[in-house]
Structure formats: structure tokens, C-alpha cells
Amino acid sequence: MNNIIFLAKDEVETFLPEGRMSKIRFLLEPCVVINPEEIIDQEAWIRLLGENNPEIILSAWRMRALPKQVLDEAPNLKYVCYLTGTIRLVISRSLIENGLLVTNWGDSISRTISECALLLILGCVRKVGYWTQKMHVEGDWSDASTVTQSLFEKRIGIHGFGMIARKLVPLIRPFSDRISAFSPGVPQSLFDEFDVSRADSLEVLFSENDVVVELEALTEETFRIVSEKLLRSIPPSGVFVNVGRGSVVDEQALARVAKEGRIQIGLDVYEEEPLSKDSPLRGLDNVLLLPHIGGPTTDRRVDAGDRALANLRAYRSGGELKGIIDLEVYDRST
Amino acid sequence: MNNIIFLAKDEVETFLPEGRMSKIRFLLEPCVVINPEEIIDQEAWIRLLGENNPEIILSAWRMRALPKQVLDEAPNLKYVCYLTGTIRLVISRSLIENGLLVTNWGDSISRTISECALLLILGCVRKVGYWTQKMHVEGDWSDASTVTQSLFEKRIGIHGFGMIARKLVPLIRPFSDRISAFSPGVPQSLFDEFDVSRADSLEVLFSENDVVVELEALTEETFRIVSEKLLRSIPPSGVFVNVGRGSVVDEQALARVAKEGRIQIGLDVYEEEPLSKDSPLRGLDNVLLLPHIGGPTTDRRVDAGDRALANLRAYRSGGELKGIIDLEVYDRST
After folding, report:
1. Which residue of A56, A292, A320, B224 is most buried, as measured by CB atoms within 10 A?
2. Is the CATH code 3.40.50.720 the one for domain A3-107+299-332?
3. Exposed/middle/buried for A41, CB within 10 Å: 0-12, 13-18, 19+?
């Protein structure tokens, strides 16, 4: 029996730098370290699993899908420690049902996405797109008619109250106590814990806040739920930021609202990515655009590495693991 | 005897909205409200002062300079409640020496400038200038070689530790505990209060931080103290942000360093303002430029209005005033 570390060189370097890899190898002894590039097809992958019959697999973005019959090939397999996020493409629901333990980066990288949200909020409030155009392209300056805004004391509404929203609250709290969220499934106790008030409806969230942050999970129910009507209800000079899922928003409607210039918009996610070259969202100075770089940032992949290390230690010592993918989490994940 | 409220219509509307003006008029009874536009020259100003012989003058940006002999004309004058910042151009040092009480907006508006600093820091860390060019102008997207950074756990150094720096600390604290500052005149107790470590020298501040924020006051000693050598000592991929005084930095050196693209730069202030149309700082995608809009933002002028209202109440009731311009503050002010 050999545990399997299935990671590419760049994944080891960015997720497990500065001695983390040695520590993990030690925890996983006996183990083999396999570069995903060496496993050229699913057949080679199944052979690898069968030959090593691992108890633990550590992997990341370049993991190959586990065959449904993996427990026939590798009956010893108990735990997949996945360094990154999306596990639906590599692990089938039935394996979780059958008791396979799976963890991913959980909330260890959420704060970087929250940071991106704060950047887009502040950038919109201060009209960075407009000033970048004025200062860099037009060689211009402010004048007597310039009106500026601050985030301080603004009403901030969050659509969704998952891990990223909860990491966003401490970043925006120094600016305002007027924070509310709309997220039907979330218990009141969680709102209380974060001192965030509950918006009664999506309509209230959009129409009664100066800043609206989109962080709702994408489901059948939330697909394009942010309609033109909702976007138009944001007060004049208001801000709409999306760092969650592009398809929660009706992007064509968003582009129409954007074009009118009445509100400031900051986006890191889109219905289709990469954003098409001729998207009407491009070229508008009231819209800040980032190419889905919210998180994790390259320099904070170590946080996911540290989370995996802690989970492997907990697994070995019978402690509590974080970011376990149970059926509920699996079904909610995207 | 009449107290004088010497404010333009737009100053009343933005500094004293929503009943604040009525409250102040009540506190200043008997008083006259004079629009600065009606006082066309210094002679009319002196006549106004003489005719009303005020105990209190409330004014702002459009105040005319008090004549040195103002106490001959208006011997009753005890208190100038100045809504805005720079008082050196309107009140001579000798009047302060002679016991004239003067307050200004003090630290009531500092937080908006700190907010602008955080925006520029986050914008530099995430390369917003670069991505704005890529996304809006080139119609492009990120690729496999894209390396991104976060502010979390970064070493942040602040040059200066005055009011704006002290308001910045709670905004950056959620991102990092590795905050240091260099400010020779500031007592250790203040560093301890804000849990900020002391950099031993300007050289250490620049060379041993990932993010350097310029907030030092402009004096003869600090004029262009941020040299090319210091700027070049910022680690690769580091950040330099200036929201303090343009002339603390050697701007020609800054432009040379900027052009090389090794660090990200965010600026709200310049040696000469407006920034000249052909400044070499314009057009570089590793430089974020704002046209000195740090603060106070238009929407937070009310904070200065509230400060003035509180000071006038304190003056009337024998309480403690905030933001008093004594000789020490006067000599340090710009």
C-alpha cells in the first residue's frame, strides 16, 4: 500500500512551499509522488490506483476523475484530500454516499475573494474607471463640479451569506454598521453572529442599499435571478458588485443598465468566461472589469496547503477535519 | 454684537444639511449669515467685522483672511470655528499667540483619505490599472501565466503616523498584523496604542515592506525625502501609495521607477496640481492615478459640519473643543 500525492510541479511550489511538502510526505508515508502529466489516460490512472491501493490521495486541479468502481481497484481508499475547490467533476456522488471522506480548501481561500469584493466596492464608490480614463487617456483633472463619495456610513447589502460573505463582513465593518443580507436558507443565528440584518426580500435588498454585493450560489432557482428590474432599483449613484457567479445575473440586462451610467458596476465573474471580446460591458468607464481573479490569489494558495496539512494531521491523529464534503455540501457545490 | 456665519450656499448645503444649519444659527444667536460672494474686497470684509463685532465667526474654504488688526475692529472676537482645513492663509500666527481660539475639521475627515489609501493599496496589489487596460481597451482576459497577489499577510509600512495613518490602521488590520511605521516625532505610546511596530529608519521602511504608504507631513526636512534610492529599494512586485503630500516624493525619480514597471504605484497627490497633461506618470498601466480626491468626499463633509456643531455647543457650555489650532499645530500645518 502506498498513499498517492498526485500533484504537478507548479502545484507543489505554490500550494506547498517552504517545507510543507516534506511535512505532508512524512504524514503520508509510505507514499508515491506522481506528476499528473505522467498519467496520460484513464487506463493509466486506474492502473496507478490499483498498483498502489492508497488509503489517502492528495491532489488538486489536475486530478483525474476517480472511476466509479475505484473501490474495486483500490479497496483501501478512505480519504481524498483535495487542495482546491470543485470536486464534482472528479468525485461522483455515489462515492460520498459510500462513505469516502473528501475535503477541499473549504473557506481557507474565501477571504481573498472578499478582498476582491472590497476592492471593487471602493473602486466603484470612488469611480476608479472614470478617473483612470480621465487621468491616463484624456490627460485631465478634477474640477469644481466633481462630486465624490465615500463608503463610510453607506448601506451595504449582500445577496447570499456563505463563506465569502462572512469573510467580507469584517472587511467592510470599519466603514459601516448598516450591513444587511438576503439569503433564504441561512439561519437567523448566523445573521446575529455577524451582526448583519436580514433583508426581507431581494427587492428590498436592491432598492434600499447604496452598495449591493452579489455572492449568491448558482442554482436552478438563482439562475439570472438578478433581473433588469432589480438592477434598476438600485438608488442613483449606487454600486453593484459581482464576485460570486456570473449566471446569477441577467448579463444582457446588466449591460443595458451599465450603459446608462446611472450606477457604478464592478465585476470579476461573467455568464461566459473568458468574457467575449465584443461584450457591451467592455469600454464603459462606470464599469470595473477583472478577469475572474478574485481568489485564491497565487500568493495565498499556501492557505489551502496549510488547510490540507492540518486536515492530514487531524486524519492521522483522529482529530476534526475542516471542509468535509458531505452530501449536503456536495449537492450545493458548483 | 452679531456673530458671523460666513458661508456660501453650497458650503451650507454640503457641510450643514438636514437641520444642522438651524441648530448652528440657534447656537450663534444673535448672528448674521453672510454669503462670501457679497463681500467683494478686504475693505468690505473689515467693515463687516467692525459693524458686527462678532464673538464667533463660522466659516470655511471661502473665508477671507482676517486682518492682523482684526481685534481693533472687532475687539469681541474670541473664536473662529473653521469648517475646513488650512487656516494659515486666513489667520496669522500672531492672532493665535494673542489667544484667539481657532478650530478646524481636525481628524473628522481623515478617515475618507485613509479609505482612498486602502483603495489604492488594494488596486495596486490586484493590478487594476493593468486589468483595466487589458479588459476595456485590449478586449483581453487572464491566461495560464497570470500571477495574482492579495493584501493578506503582507508587510505594510507607513511613512508618517498622523491622523490619517491612525485611521488607516483599523482599515488594514483585517488584512495583516505586520504593520510598521516610520515617524521620528511620534511617541512610542502611540505606536503601542495602535499595535504598530516602529521602523528604525526610512531605509528599513522602504526595503522591508511589501506595501509602503506615504503619509508624512511636508516640511523643509521632508521635502523630496522619498528619493529614487528609497523607491528602488521597495521589493519587486511591491506597492507604493501616496495620499499625503506630493512634494515629500521626488516625482521625477518616481516617474523613472514607475516606467520600469517593477512595482505598482497608486497616487492621489502630486508635486504640482493639477498634474501636468504631459506628466510621464500618465499612461502607465502599473500606476493608478486619482486627481487629489482623497478626502473629504462630498458626502462626508457633514462630518466636518458635525464637528463644528459639537465644538460650538462645547464653546457655549464650557465643554472641551476638538481640533484646536494651538501654536504647535499651527506651525506643523500646511
Report:
1. A56
2. yes
3. exposed
Is the model's pLDDT at A334 over the cut of 90?
A: no
- What residues of chain A lie within 8 A of the CB of B146, using their CB? 291, 293
Q: What's the average model confidence in pLDDT over B295-303?
A: 97
Q: Inter-chain contact A152–B288, Cβ cutoff 8 Å?
A: no
CATH superfamily membership of B3-106+299-332: NAD(P)-binding Rossmann-like Domain (3.40.50.720)
pLDDT score of B12 more than 90: yes
Q: Where is B217: in which H helix or E strand?
A: none
**Cell reading at B323:** 481640533
The span from the CA of B51 to the CA of B2, in Å, is: 9
Strand order in the sheet with A179-182: A197-198, A179-182, A156-159, A211-214, A239-242, A264-267, A287-289
User: At the top level of CATH, which class does the domain A110-289 belong to?
Assistant: alpha beta
- The predicted complex's ipTM stands at 0.95
d(C-alpha B55, C-alpha B318), whole Å: 15
Q: Which of B123, B170, B298 is opposite residue A123, by nearest beta carbon?
A: B123
**Among residues B6, B5, B67, which one has the least CA distance to residue B30?**
B5
Domain ranges of chain B: 3-106+299-332, 110-289
Interface test with B, best of A293, A298, A301 (most B CBs within 10 A): A293
CB contact under 8 A, B150 and A299: yes
| Cβ contact B333:B86 at 8 Å | yes
Long-range contacts of A168-171 (CB under 8 A, 24+ apart): A168/A114, A168/A117, A168/A118, A168/A213, A168/A215, A169/A194, A169/A195, A169/A196, A170/B174, A171/A114, A171/A115, A171/A117, A171/A118, A171/B174, A171/B175
Can you tell me the distance from the alpha carbon of A248 to that of A220, in angstroms, rounded to the nearest whole number? 9
Residue B64: DSSP 8-state: P
Q: What is the pLDDT of residues A170-222, one digit of tens each?
A: 999 999 999 999 999 899 999 999 999 999 999 999 999 999 999 999 999 99
CA distance to A122, A149, B164, per residue, from B107 (Å): 21, 18, 8
For residue A323, count other CB atoms closer than 10 A to its CB.
Answer: 21
User: In this predicted structure, what is the pLDDT of residue B319?
Assistant: 97
Which residues of chain A are within 8 Å of residue B126 when distances are taken between CB atoms?
116, 119, 290, 293
Closest CA to B255 of B278, B225, B223: B278
When pLDDT is cut at 50, 70 and 90, the band that residue B331 belongs to is: confident
User: Do the domains B3-106+299-332 and B110-289 sit in the same CATH topology, yes or no?
Assistant: yes
Q: Kindly list the residues from chain A whose CB atom is less than 8 angstroms away from the CB atom of residue B210.
A: none
Whether residue A116 and residue B131 make contact (CB cut-off 8 A), yes or no, is: no
